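PROTEIN SPECIFICATION:
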Amino acid sequence: MLLNTDLKTGKNFLFIPVLDQPLSSNRYYVIHAEGKYKGLASKCSSEDDMSDCCATRIIQDVKPKPFDHRDESLQFQICSKGKAGFIAKPIVPHSFPPVFLRSKFFIVVKNKGVYHLEDDAKGIDHSARSRLPELDSGTNVVVGKWYTPFVFVKEGSLEVQMEKSLFYNVTLERLWEKIYSWENDGKESKGNVVALDFEVKREVNFLFGVEVLKGDQIDHEGFIWFGLGDQKLGLSSAVLEGMRWLEESGGWINGVDRVERVVEIGGGGDGNNDDDRGRRFDCYVLVERFTLRRMDGTSVLNCDFRHTHEIQTKWE
C-alpha cells in the first residue's frame, strides 16, 4: 500500500501488515518510501517525549528508526473514518503516532502489477510437500512460495536496496542431494556390502552460491547475519523462525547427524562377480531449500535443511 499524506509534497509511505496478526486487525508498520528517512519505520512517541508550553502538554514526534518487527512502538492500528479517510491508533498504551498518522489521511492501494508481483504466492502446497520427489528426475519441486517486503532483509544500503527490490521472492523446494558415492572400478573390493559411516550437517547456508556461516546471535534490530565483511546479508529472525517452524513440523532436527548403515551391493547373481554388482553406488538425502531472490530473479540466499530421516540409495 502507498499513503499520500500531503497533496503538495506527495510524500509516500509503505504500509506493511504486522506479522502473526490477521489482516482484520488492521495493524501495520509504516515505512518511509522516500525522502530523508527513506526505508525507516515510523515510530510512536511516548509521554516522556512531550514538552510543556504555556501550561499545555504538547506531543513531540520522534524520528523514524530502523525496522524491528519486535518493537510495538512501530506498529499502528489503521482505523477507517469513512469518506473522511483514516487515522492511526498506537498499539502501545499512552503513546502517540506521528502527526501525519494521527491526522486524517487517505490510502491509495496499489495492485500487484505496480510491484511486478505475480498472484502465485500461496504459501505452502501441502499436497506437493507430502510426496517425495522422484529420485531420478533431477529437478527441484517447488512446494511453497511467498513474497517478503525488503524490511525483513538487510542487503547493503537501504536506498540502493529499495531501488533494486522492494520485495523478495521466497520459494521452498524439495530435492535429492548426493552425499556419498562409490564407483566399482574393480580395484577395490567391498565384498557384498557397502558400509556407510559419515556425518551430515543438517543445515547449510549459501550466500550468492557460496557456503557461508550463519550468526548465532540476534542483533539489536532483530536480525541474524549470514557471511562476513562486505559479503553479508541480514535476515529478520521472524523469517528464520518461520522457516525453522516449517522444517521442524516436517520432521527436520537441528544439528549434525551420523549416517551409519550397511547396504547390500546391487545387481543380479550372487554378488561374487564384478558383473553381478552395480558399477556405481550413490546415497542421497532429502533437502528442503528456501531460496531468497530479488525481484529481478537474482538468487541471494539459500537455506538448505537436510532431512536425514529420508535417505535413498541407488545402484547404476
About this structure: The radius of gyration is 26 Å.
